[in-house]
Amino acid sequence: SGNHGSSTTQGPAATPTSPITHISDPPPSQNFSGYYIGVGRADCTGQVSDINLMGYGKSGQNAQGLLTRLYSRAFILADSDGSNRMAFVSVELCMISQRLRLEVLKRLQSKYGSLYRRDNVVLSGTHTHSGPAGYFQYTLYILASEGFSNRTFQYLVSGIVKSIEIAHTNLKPGKIFINKGNVANVQINRSPSSYLQNPPSERARYSSDTDQEMTVLKMVDLNGEDLGLIREVEMAVCLLLDLVLFLGKERKTSPFISLLGLSQLTWNFLLFYSWFAIHPVSMNNSNHLVNSDNMGYAAYLFEQEKNRGYLPGQGPFVAGFASSNLGDVSPNILGPHCTNTGESCDNEKSTCPVGGPSMCMASGPGQDMFDSAQIIGRAIYQRAKELHDSASEEVTGPVFAAHQWVNMTDVSVQINDTHVAKTCKPALGYSFAAGTIDGVSGLNITQGTTEGDLFWDTIRDQLLGKPSEEIIECHKPKPILLHTGELTKPHPWHPDIVDVQIVTLGSLAIAAIPGEFTTMSGRRFREAVKKEFELYGMKDMTVVVSGLCNVYTHYITTYEEYQAQRYEAASTIYGPHTLSAYIQLFSDLAKAIATDTVANMSSGPEPPFFENLIATLIPNIPDRTPIGRQFGEVLEAAKPEYRVGEVVEVTFVGANPKNSAENQTHETFLTVEKYEDSIADWQIMYNDASWETRLYWHKGLLGLSNATIEWYIPDTAQPGIYRIRYFGHNRKQEFLRPAVILAFEGISSPFEVVAT
């Protein structure tokens, strides 16, 4: 759009009408000192079968069911006079892809005109490694995904846009409070020998080799008279809609309640948002269940705490836990040990005396990966809640935004008064193929490799051609394994055009980083950008690094860490001066905001949007049942009685869960229901977003499959009669007719839960 930076957004008249009649745009200049705040959460789980999980790049680590749903959590802030606004969206995905962002912006423009744009919308991935792949356009990521999945791509786009729409519809006056504090005992640096490459004088300024500080925002609504009036009108509308729904068809709760945020009648807290540096890799690369990992569990606990009486994924309060400079930060705090001998392998090469690098793995504090994710997530949640409860410093001041597209392969960086360096065309080094202590590759390549290998070089040259002298020189001392910047078939393998973006609200600046900063990279970056703001009159800014935003470009190490060529350095794709380039580019944005010259900045070269991507090779085949059986029929029944702490397991005749990503008539794959005498009916206690439930999908031959549902009975479960329901969709194909997707359900026999 022609609107750049902090140019004034158009007023209500220019906004296409929202499908829900609601006061969506702030009335001009009401007398209050806060912001208009809107919050929205929507499902963006995508496929939970027949797709790779994104993050570890491990062949064969495909989705085979669900531990938790994935959500997109949006908050919108507008100035009190409604002139400027920003939308920040934290999405439970490994990262945001450029294609995802471009499509979301396109849909927002067609609905809201120039209200939500490339400069004032930030999309950030939480970096869970247990979400679906398949939503990328650059060839390397498509290969890692084993194809582009339009089904999942459309699901993700719709979920992200829906969360923004709900937030837009919910704008109401409120205040924002900021707080900061350290979270102890949840992280280690997974490349400590790289960190030690940084100058001793710099390291001496910090007490730890990870950033332990969490920044939190608490957003509360104002309990003003005027708002009460709006709320009463909303309530009347809602009761009317509820009545219509109840008369129309049997339904326990109205979707309009959550959509209109009406339950805020009794709530003061709207939203909690935080940024913290940790890899959501408590769930390791043996996992096949889609889930949101440790940061998702923190969000789940906070939302469950505030939304009492609601099922997970429902209720007015939204808690976003966004990623930060997590590049070298692992939650597997017991550190790396050789899986065969138990001895430590915390060495520069992360390798074991027997078995080499593929034996060196870090583990979390729990009995298994599920337990570790919850221990780490709970600790993050508990600290976040303390910081939320004690937050008292109010954020005030205008909302600004600045954004540019930059060709990252060709940035000249002023290193000092005499020396200019340049970024490189993208390339990955040997240690990229080693993986990390959180997920080893299994290849006999170690981290810290600074020399090429004739065997691998020859294979690469035969398959892909030789890297140019120019790219080899530019990336030194990185030995190039894949010269992705010179590979263009069928489409470029890596992005050239990258987003740089800052949004500010008062004294808070959120920097949208298109990749993973290491700990020290994040520290240098924040300090430099803060200094630039200060130089031009914006004093005491808090600069937050928001990771995995807008487009994925792997890692960004410091120049010194780059020399050691461990995994993070080998994955710093634009060469040794990448961090310096980002510091320069983001400093320019900070200066433009501080001097009110954003409108004069060029928008930069527009990124491509490729057609005809390599599609997934997994066919859509019709689902079948065993002879004489129906979809949803119970194959292995529940026992008649269980104690608290035990696991209920029921197996049904299943169908491919990816069908449910196309036909979304059911909002959940499963429910655990308790019989309530008082209403003489079954009440839903848990759904598939609950961490106590798991759906395992077992793929058989020629369209046959089973679905096993497990419920880990928690201590909080009330004794009584329960049942489990399974909701699925089967693909039906008749000769020469288009395929149809049909909904079905299955119900277990009732069983009793007794106290221990």
TrEMBL record:
Cofactor(s) the record lists: Zn(2+)
Top-tier EC class: hydrolase
GO biological process: ceramide biosynthetic process; ceramide catabolic process; long-chain fatty acid biosynthetic process; sphingosine biosynthetic process
Region ranges (Disordered): 1-27
Domain Neutral/alkaline non-lysosomal ceramidase N-terminal: 35-230, 271-584
Primary site of residence: membrane
Biased composition (Polar residues): 1-21
Active-site residues per Swiss-Prot or TrEMBL entry: S330 (nucleophile)
Membrane topology category: Single-pass type II membrane protein
Protein task: Plasma membrane ceramidase that hydrolyzes sphingolipid ceramides into sphingosine and free fatty acids at neutral pH. Ceramides, sphingosine, and its phosphorylated form sphingosine-1-phosphate are bioactive lipids that mediate cellular signaling pathways regulating several biological processes including cell proliferation, apoptosis and differentiation. Also catalyzes the reverse reaction allowing the synthesis of ceramides from fatty acids and sphingosine.
Protein name: Neutral ceramidase
